[in-house]
Amino acid sequence: MSDFASLLSSFKVTAQSAAAAPPAEKTNEDASRKRAAPSAASTTLAFPSIHIHLKKKSFDLHFLILGGQKCGTTWVHTLLQKCKLVSLPAQKEVHFWDWHYKKGIDWYIRQFEQNSSKHLGEITPDYVVLPPTTIAEIHRCFPNLRLVFIARDLVERAWSAMVMELRDQNMGLNPGEFAVGVIQGDKRSAKRAKPNVSTSQQRRMQQLSSPSSQPDSYFIERLEHETHKSRSDYATSLKNWYEYFPDDAILLIDYRDIRSDPHGVLYKIVTHIGVDEDVAKQYVDELDEEEVQQRVNVSTNNDGNGKETHNDSSVSLSQRPLLKKQMEKLVSPYVMSFNTLLRAKGYTWSLNDYT
């Protein structure tokens, strides 16, 4: 069972136990480690009162980019680092609010540039599925926080995520770990590289990591798992954030715009998080065009520079029309609910509804 799934399971067990037991003092310190979709169970779990300790600190977080997973956040992180008025941690995906909150607010503050007048923020795609109790505490800590979410076609996003998941599993990695050089052409920054992998083992892992190594049923089963359901249900997750933050604090970006108007996407993001418009314009105008056009962290085989090859995941899925149809059927309700949310919030774009 994956880290995500086991944590989600513990959510449900905790909720069931609470319902059956008499009232007792709650000391549930593990609530924020869940990356599950917000649910009735998650609303009963307490989150530490970090804001009490934050009052004594001169630290203000300006923005979070919440996701989604496999929606271009690595590209955004790479290019935002080049804006002189934005400061990000060196490591993308700090995971303070779900995995590392027990380390305390001082640990979180140390991840950022100290005594900075820049706009401080971080990008952790799993934050979008944080439970309401955690979101409430984030709001208590940073009520003026600016939020960004990038939405990708749900079939494309799920397929890309499952291909990445398959690759990582066959490299023997634990959830959240990355490997360098195990599969040829993988240039991702790494926490750990698998040592002593022979050439024959590399070939075997490449074969097992290919989507063609698995039947359609494997991917349908994965897509029906709570991990992928929660990450597909954009609307439910975002509604939890809208409960605590005003509409104008949350910017929703169409992933397709990263391809069609990357400069425009970056301009929208930096002005949304508070960068002056003139500075933002200068920033996007001075970006290296090759870097802007570069897709970072492509989920499957690439030429070592992040550029797709004939083995990329979209080509693999296009060769499996029956699987694609099944996936479209499974995610269709999530598309409808998200498009409804977009209209309610005044957006004119929408995701493909597969009709």
TrEMBL record:
Q: Which residues form the Sulfotransferase domain?
A: 62-298
- Residues covered by region (Disordered): 19-39, 186-216, 296-318
Q: Which residues carry out catalysis?
A: 70
Q: Where is the composition biased (Low complexity)?
A: 198-216
Q: Name one GO molecular function term.
A: transferase activity
- The residues that the entry says bind 3'-phosphoadenylyl sulfate are 152, 160
InterPro entries recorded = NST/OST, P-loop_NTPase, Sulfotransferase_dom
Name the chain's protein: Sulfotransferase domain-containing protein
Q: Name its species.
A: Cyclotella atomus
Top-down, what is the taxonomic lineage of the species of origin?
Eukaryota, Sar, Stramenopiles, Ochrophyta, Bacillariophyta
